[in-house]
Amino acid sequence: MFDLSGKVTLVTGASQGIGEVIATCLAQMGAQVVCASIPATEGDLQRVLAAIGEAGGKADYVLADVSNGDSVRAMVTTVVERHGALHVLVNNAGITKDRLLIQLKEEEWDAVLNINLKGAFLCTQAAARPMMKQRWGRIINIASVVGQMGNAGQANYVSSKAGLIGLTKTTARELAGRNITANAVAPGYIATPMTENLPEEVKAEFNRQIPLGRMGTPADIAAAVAFLASEEASYITGCTIPVNGGMLMP
Ligand code: NAP
């Protein structure tokens, strides 16, 4: 348990899955959490807020599409106007559109890169301004084990996550002088809506590849994010923390 009291925290893609649990976890640690997602998820965001509030946490929401620069800049402006600061950014929003490389459509490549990689760039760029003024910030990118090892059928997704790890290192180098850290968390296979529709035999095969013998949970990811957001992680930057049950030991 880390003390995140007074830390204004923006989590993208917070309407379900890993983002929802990260938002809930950081609110439990005292952060003022702003949950962001696209307008179509407003009902889910309201459900997430109600649950955080019932547990005694502080949260509100903002609607934004991370792949759109105007939308992202308006989102960050709203956060700073509402709360007077932005301390922690969690770039969690992400999608998959899987297909073998030779069949992958150009629009499927663009859609995944635009949300997973360009989205993180736009959010980082917008959040860096208030963080630089504050001389304090934490940027945490949700990458993936497949960005480190490749995966058949996911050329677009893997490229976006490998790119995100590079973006993390560059952000870390550029912003270190302003006391801003940038790190990534690379989940293995995590039980969320993104993975629930996988066939049972595929899930069983995943479990065989994982030394700890099970898929991870969103809470496993949230714990790593909470650590990276904390004061205790102030000397860690440019890192990618694997949370993958031992599936890949880089
Ligand atoms: P998820 O359940 O599909 O949640 C993704 C969230 O991002 C949803 O709230 C989604 O809204 C939102 N989103 C989609 N497009 C957006 C946009 N343009 N702007 C803002 N928000 C948008 O996925 P998850 O499994 O929790 O994954 C969360 C992150 O972890 C992703 O970056 C994913 O790549 C990464 N990850 C997941 C796993 C896994 O096994 N689950 C493994 C490694 C890494 P909608 O529901 O409306 O689309």
Describe, in plain words, how this protein is organized in 3D:
This protein has helices at 17-28, 42-54, 69-83, 106-134, 146-149, 155-175, 193-196, 200-209, 218-229, and strands spanning 8-12, 32-37, 58-63, 88-91, 137-142, 180-187, 240-243. The chain has 250 residues and is an alpha/beta fold. It has one domain (8-242): Rossmann fold (3-Layer(aba) Sandwich). Strands 3-2-1-4-5-6-7 form a seven-stranded parallel beta sheet, with helices on both faces. β1 (8-12), α1 (17-28) and β2 (32-37) form a beta-alpha-beta unit. α1 packs across α9 (218-229), α3 (69-83) packs parallel to α4 (106-134) and α4 (106-134) packs parallel to α6 (155-175). The longest helix has 29 residues, at 106-134. The mean pLDDT is 97. The structure holds NADP nicotinamide-adenine-dinucleotide phosphate.
List keywords for this structure.
binds NADP nicotinamide-adenine-dinucleotide phosphate; alpha/beta; Rossmann fold; globular; 250 residues; single chain; 9 helices
Describe the SSE topology.
Layout: E1 8-12, H1 17-28, E2 32-37, H2 42-54, E3 58-63, H3 69-83, E4 88-91, H4 106-134, E5 137-142, H5 146-149, H6 155-175, E6 180-187, H7 193-196, H8 200-209, H9 218-229, E7 240-243
Parallel strand pairs: 1-2, 1-4, 2-3, 4-5, 5-6, 6-7
Helix pairs in contact: 1-9, 3-4, 4-6
Gist?
The protein is an alpha/beta fold.
**Beta content:** 15-25%
**CA-to-CA gap between the ends?**
27 Å
What is the gyration radius calculated from CA atoms? Answer: 17 Å
Identify the bound ligands: NADP nicotinamide-adenine-dinucleotide phosphate
The CATH class is identified as Alpha Beta
Low-confidence stretches: none
User: Biggest sheet, open or closed, and with what strands and sense?
Assistant: 7 strands, parallel
Overall structural class, as computed from helix and strand content, comes to alpha/beta
Shape descriptor: globular
How many separate domains? 1
CATH superfamily: NAD(P)-binding Rossmann-like Domain
Helix content: 40-55%
Spatial strand order of the main sheet: 3-2-1-4-5-6-7
| Strand element count | 7
H and E order: EHEHEHEHEHHEHHHE
What is the helix tally?
A: 9
**Residue-averaged pLDDT, rounded?**
97
**Topology-level CATH name:** Rossmann fold
CATH architectural name: 3-Layer(aba) Sandwich
